[in-house]
């Protein structure tokens, strides 16, 4: 093996972890600030400039909290759960490009790789919920499994539409196919379905069933204390990052902002706009009921996504360059 | 008056007490449930049930409404040595918690109640707090 | 017969899923205090529910027997701490009826105004907690904005945000500063209505909210009467019973208002009744400010009140329903028996009937719609 | 012997980490609201837009005691409820603090002589901050929180087991107002 490539990749991986940690911190602060302003209150103000150091304080506190593992919990999986939830998100990030060709591994099957990784995350949530030996978290785990499985299907079908139009599963190619017109314009139904399912995949409000605070105490992570809880939070923010990144890459033109020249700045900007939109949802909407949520996926989203696929197929074969 | 108090009272071997601010029907405990049954069939709904400790006896007092604005008090008197009376739960299901509370606070047993257990106090609690014989700690010290 | 086959029999026995018992509360985020619910679940469906109460039982009825009538006002405040003025008024009416005390005209207007204002704040609190129960964080924060404003008025006129101890036998403690009333009038006439419109936009028009509330836990008038349910919950099933009209007290018969009812009887109807009641109450409070006559606010009553021997039961339309005070006097300065018929107590006792067969998340929508206050239930 | 002496001696790295951890803890006191009675309303008001305790990083009321730092007792502890409070307290991870809010939680308050009440939270739990009032005003609770925050920031990890309770004065001294107003004054939205 070429030592130079190995070293670059190693450094890249480390850089990714740093970026991820940074993202979690930014998002934690930004979520509290944004929700605060939606509520007409200032949010964190006294921990650094406008509370910018708040996430560091939280992290330090969590690090130094007593690490409780309940007596009857399954110790191995109690530890493993957060890791199983975090690691696939990290792995998915490895193939997500920031600029043309600028990804840790710009592989040909990037699209499928990301979805494959996203499919593993629910296992983590289910493990987290199940291993704590708590009825609340068990209900949360079951909800999480049901929810993530049923929302994966429409999401993938919509992604197939993109695949069909772009003719490649390489994420860079998909973005470059949107250099002038985004897929958001060409496939608006697809964007809508993809956005809904992505929010559901991230366990964000209004789909935050697994950790429905008013219902299931703290849902899947009821028994998690200290840094392990921090890890669960990290997994959730990372899932949010991956999901929003996919929305930006597949529908919002990635680094393209026609007629301006392409730049990674646009991508980062869009990324955080999408994430802010998801936070906004949390500030506005109430939570769906579990059965309505399942119904929504199986009765409406899957047929709609299939119709969308058919439409895209017809359009793509009729008009060249759709 | 939508309900003829005198007639109802007479039919259940009771009497009408008009000395107070509201008319009250006082019946012996044997006809307690029949009285409620008869009133219920006449379209009367209940409002409240409680007890008053009179020292030697315990009065069970129910407040019922004959119409939206008309208030009737039903009473039966139980001697201390035998605090049992028929439950009104079969007549008005909402009496469930009220009778449990009366049992919890006064020790009155309601025959025919489906689940007569303590409601406000915990299971191991001794005594019936709202009886006059139940003293608070401060009173015990004073006496 | 295939069922007789030993293996089939065993399989069938195995296939029966075990129900789990979930203890919800007393320490749970959306139990509105310390309420304990034993739920028997099959999956997420509630098979049976058994409420356990008494975690906040402070023995107010016993303590009141050791206080003078005036001292009991402190305990009455703490019964239902969300609608304090209604409690105080109901208690005052009971004692005034028992001791035959006349109340001056202006005091009646003031009492009506405070009772209606507290109905607004109480329903605002309920609105916020319904939002919280259904997973939205914003409604509760928004609901606190008008609440704080009305609390400012309470504080400026009675000296306390929550526990005013303002009403007295034969009137109220003291008159209100006209400037404060004017400021409140301006607020009620415009800003409060704007805020309520905003709430309607935030929650009432929300499709998710409607889908969660419509047709949920329906109740008929007969059921409501059988379970002793009163107040907005009863009016939501089509009954027109409202003690403010049926047994007129205060100045309600002189105000221009209507009792809010609905015929659907489900959770959405309960929601809609309360939302409209807020507007009606604001309207009534406005009329009180506009038409309040000048005059005395308090009649002279003996410092240590000794009502004549007798007993009285007074029904009062509190924010949650029929609040009853049953006072037995033996002629001494302390009540012989002090009984509170609490509306939330009776409303919550209907909970097992309402939530059988519902899902866990529906349970919270039902429970929030009851609008209970544990302090009043447990007393 | 040597080990203990070394632990007592100020060590640059240890003290730096200790300062950092104390800073982190003091800025991130999350609540466990065992909300019982009247005072929990004023606690809720403190989360509202006017008082907004999130501004000092305490805005999160965690539903699970496992993730919270401060147990708030906003009402009377009845004999029926006392074991549950103890259980919730035991479920919280160390370091943890307890705030007794209101006269019921401090001593039993208006219901002190009742047959169903404990005589205050400190009969069952170690209380760190006593905030008097019936009910407590949000400003008073805010002041108690600020005091607790200062205490957390000033307490080294070694001294955690030995703690003197903080008593918030029932009257309003001028500096009391000034300190809270300084925090509350910066955002007068409503």
3D structure, described in words:
The complex is a heterotetramer of chains A (322), B (143), C (379) and D (190). Chain B is α/β, with parallel strands linked by helices. Chain B contains four helices and seven strands, in the order αββαββββαβα. Chain B has a single domain, classed as 2-Layer Sandwich (Beta Polymerase, domain 2), CATH 3.30.460.80. The N and C termini of chain B lie far apart (49 Å). By secondary structure, chain C is α+β, with helices and mostly antiparallel strands. Chain C has a single domain, classed as Cytochrome-c3 Hydrogenase, chain B (Orthogonal Bundle). Chain C is built from 16 helices and eight strands. In chain C, helix 5 runs antiparallel to helix 6 and helix 12 runs parallel beside helix 15. Chain D has 190 residues and is an alpha/beta fold. Chain D has seven helices and five strands. Classes of the chains: A mainly alpha (322), B alpha/beta (143), C alpha+beta (379), D alpha/beta (190). At the A-D interface, helix 2 of A face helix 2 of D.
Keywords:
heterotetramer, A: 322 residues, mainly alpha, 2 domains, 11 helices, 68% helix, C: 379 residues, alpha+beta, three-stranded antiparallel β-sheet, 16 helices, 8 strands, 50% helix
Indicate the topology.
The complex is a heterotetramer of chains A (322), B (143), C (379) and D (190).
Chain B: H1 5-11, E1 15-17, E2 24-26, H2 32-41, E3 45-53, E4 57-67, E5 70-79, E6 84-86, H3 95-106, E7 109-111, H4 137-142
Parallel strand pairs in B: 2-5, 6-7
Antiparallel strand pairs in B: 1-2, 3-4, 4-5
Chain C: H1 6-15, E1 20-24, E2 36-42, E3 45-52, H2 60-64, H3 72-77, H4 84-99, H5 105-133, H6 138-158, E4 167-168, E5 171-172, H7 178-204, H8 207-213, H9 221-227, H10 232-235, H11 243-246, H12 267-291, E6 310-318, E7 321-329, E8 337-341, H13 343-349, H14 351-355, H15 360-370, H16 374-378
Antiparallel strand pairs in C: 1-2, 2-3, 4-5, 6-7, 7-8
Helix pairs in contact in C: 4-5, 5-6, 5-12, 5-15, 6-7, 7-12, 12-15
Chain D: H1 2-8, H2 12-26, E1 31-33, H3 39-47, E2 70-73, H4 82-91, E3 97-101, H5 102-107, E4 129-131, H6 138-154, E5 166-167, H7 174-184
Helix pairs in contact in D: 2-6, 3-6, 6-7
């Amino acid at each position: 093996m070429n030592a130079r490539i190995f070293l670059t990749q190693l450094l890249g991986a480390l850089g990714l972890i740093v970026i991820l940690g940074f993202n979690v911190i930014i998002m934690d602060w930004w979520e509290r600030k944004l929700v605060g302003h939606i509520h007409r209150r200032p949010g964190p103000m006294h921990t650094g400039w406008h509370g910018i150091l708040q996430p560091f304080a939280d992290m330090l506190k969590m690090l130094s909290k007593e690490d409780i593992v309940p007596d009857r919990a399954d110790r191995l999986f109690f530890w493993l759960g957060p890791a199983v939830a975090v690691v696939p998100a990290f792995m998915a990030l490895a193939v997500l490009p920031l600029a043309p060709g600028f990804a840790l591994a710009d592989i040909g099957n990037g699209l499928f790789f990301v979805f494959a990784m996203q499919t593993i995350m629910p296992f983590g949530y289910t493990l987290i919920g199940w291993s704590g030996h708590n009825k609340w978290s068990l209900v949360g785990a079951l909800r999480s499994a049901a929810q993530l499985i049923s929302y994966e299907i429409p999401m993938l079908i919509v992604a197939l539409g993109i695949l069909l139009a772009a003719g490649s599963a390489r994420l860079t190619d998909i973005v470059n196919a949107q250099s002038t017109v985004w897929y958001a314009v060409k496939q608006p139904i697809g964007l809508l379905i993809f956005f809904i399912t992505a929010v559901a995949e991230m366990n964000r409000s209004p789909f935050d069933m697994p950790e429905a605070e008013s219902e299931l105490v703290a849902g899947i992570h009821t028994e998690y204390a200290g840094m392990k809880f921090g890890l669960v939070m990290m997994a959730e923010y990372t899932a949010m990052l991956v999901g929003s990144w996919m929305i930006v890459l597949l529908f919002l033109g990635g680094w393209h902002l026609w007629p301006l020249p392409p730049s990674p700045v646009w991508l980062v900007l869009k990324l955080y706009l999408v994430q802010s939109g998801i936070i906004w949802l949390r500030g506005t909407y109430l939570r769906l009921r579990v059965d309505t949520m399942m119904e929504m996926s199986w009765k409406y989203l899957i047929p709609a996504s299939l119709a969308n696929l058919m439409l895209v197929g017809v359009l793509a074969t009729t008009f060249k360059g759709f | 008056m939508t309900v003829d108090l005198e007639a109802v009272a007479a039919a259940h071997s009771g009497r009408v007490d008009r000395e107070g601010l509201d008319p009250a029907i006082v019946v012996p405990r044997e006809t307690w449930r029949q009285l409620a049954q008869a009133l219920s069939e006449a379209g009367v709904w209940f409002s409240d049930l409680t007890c008053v400790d009179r020292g030697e006896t315990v009065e069970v007092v129910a407040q019922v409404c004959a119409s939206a604005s008309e208030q009737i008090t039903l009473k039966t008197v139980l001697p201390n040595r035998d605090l049992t009376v028929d439950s009104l739960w079969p007549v008005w299901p909402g009496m469930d918690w009220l009778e449990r509370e009366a049992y919890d606070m006064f020790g009155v047993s309601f025959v025919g109640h489906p689940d007569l257990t303590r409601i406000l106090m915990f299971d191991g609690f001794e005594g019936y707090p709202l009886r006059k014989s139940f003293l608070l700690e401060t009173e015990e010290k004073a006496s | 017969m295939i069922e007789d086959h030993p293996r089939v029999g065993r399989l069938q026995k195995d296939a029966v899923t075990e129900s789990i018992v979930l203890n919800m509360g007393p320490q749970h985020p959306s139990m509105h205090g310390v309420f304990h619910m034993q739920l028997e679940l099959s999956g997420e469906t509630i098979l049976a529910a058994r409420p356990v109460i008494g975690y906040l039982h402070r023995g107010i009825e016993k303590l009141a027997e050791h206080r003078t009538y005036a001292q009991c006002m402190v305990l009455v405040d703490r019964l239902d701490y969300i609608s304090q003025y209604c409690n105080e008024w109901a208690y005052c009416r009971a004692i005034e009826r028992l001791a035959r005390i006349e109340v001056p005209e202006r005091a009646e207007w003031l009492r009506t105004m405070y009772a209606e204002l507290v109905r607004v704040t109480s329903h605002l609190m309920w609105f916020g907690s319904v939002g919280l129960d259904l997973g939205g964080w914003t409604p509760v924060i928004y609901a606190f904005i008008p609440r704080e404003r009305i609390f400012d008025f309470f504080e400026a006129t009675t000296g306390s945000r929550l526990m005013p101890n303002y009403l007295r036998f034969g009137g109220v403690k003291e008159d209100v500063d006209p400037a404060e009333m004017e400021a409140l009038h301006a607020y009620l006439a415009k800003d409060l209505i704007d805020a309520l419109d905003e709430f309607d936009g935030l929650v009432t028009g929300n499709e998710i909210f409607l889908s969660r509330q419509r047709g949920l836990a329906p109740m008929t008038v007969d059921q409501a009467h059988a379970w002793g349910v009163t107040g907005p919950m009863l009016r939501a099933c089509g009954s027109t019973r409202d003690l403010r009209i049926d047994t007129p007290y205060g100045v309600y018969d002189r105000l221009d208002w209507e009792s809010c009812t609905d015929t659907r009887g489900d959770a959405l109807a309960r929601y809609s009744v309360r939302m409209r009641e807020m507007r009606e109450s604001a309207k009534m409070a406005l009329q009180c400010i506009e038409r309040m006559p000048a005059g005395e606010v308090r009649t002279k009553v003996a410092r240590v009140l000794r009502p004549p021997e007798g007993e009285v039961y007074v029904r009062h339309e509190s924010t949650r329903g029929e609040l009853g005070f049953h006072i037995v006097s033996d002629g001494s300065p302390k009540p012989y028996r002090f009984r509170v018929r609490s509306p939330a107590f009776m409303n919550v006792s209907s909970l097992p009937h309402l939530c059988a067969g519902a899902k866990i998340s529906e349970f919270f929508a039902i429970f929030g719609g009851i609008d209970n206050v544990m302090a009043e239930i447990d007393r | 012997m040597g080990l203990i002496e070394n632990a007592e001696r100020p060590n640059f790295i240890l003290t730096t980490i200790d300062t950092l951890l104390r800073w982190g803890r003091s800025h991130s006191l999350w609540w466990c609201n065992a909300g019982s009675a009247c005072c929990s309303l004023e606690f809720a008001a403190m989360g509202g837009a006017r008082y907004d305790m999130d501004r000092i990083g305490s805005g999160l009321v965690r539903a699970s005691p496992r993730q919270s730092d401060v147990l708030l007792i906003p009402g009377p502890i009845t004999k029926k409820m006392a074991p549950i409070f103890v259980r919730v307290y035991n479920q919280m991870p160390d370091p943890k603090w307890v705030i007794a809010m209101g006269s019921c939680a401090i001593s039993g308050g208006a219901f002190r002589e009742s047959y169903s009440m404990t005589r205050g939270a400190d009969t069952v739990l170690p209380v760190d901050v006593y905030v008097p009032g019936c009910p407590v005003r949000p400003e008073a609770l805010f002041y108690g929180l600020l005091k607790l925050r200062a205490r957390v920031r000033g307490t080294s990890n070694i001294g955690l087991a030995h703690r003197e309770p903080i008593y918030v004065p029932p009257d309003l001294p001028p500096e009391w107002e000034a300190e809270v107003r300084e925090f509350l004054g910066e955002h007068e939205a409503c």
